[in-house]
Amino acid sequence: MNAAVPPNGGAVFRRLVAVALLLPSVAIAQSQKEFASRRAALRKDFPDGVRVALGDHEPPQDYIAFSQAPSFYYLTGFKEPDAALVMVKKSGRISATMFVEPNQPNREVWTGVRLGTRGIETLTGIRGRSSDALPAVLDSLAEELEALVGTAV
What are φ and ψ of residue 7, in 5° steps? Predict the structure, then answer.
């Protein structure tokens, strides 16, 4: 007698598992829309210039847990260390770039898998570059600003 097992019990279970697996991706998509709206609100109100949001650094000791800088997380939703968001507004045109740690499989054994530049573009829709390029980009932007304003920055 199989009165305890409903005729479509397996189908119901499969549907519940499918919903449980899809729910995180839906929540992430909604979160990225929220982060994008926060960045849009910030860009809307600032004049021509450069805005830089810096993420927190990875602790040098491996036993200390990493925690992202709250203001950086508020704008990006990105939890990896040593990242930066650079937004440039020039003549009303706005561009944004995320600088992130590149994928390094030999290091990721210890630190965890990184999204890298392709992953950040997929996650946020913002162009990604290696964090190694950040100092040169900021120097270049400072030189442009100095030439525009006429004084040393």
Answer: -60, -35
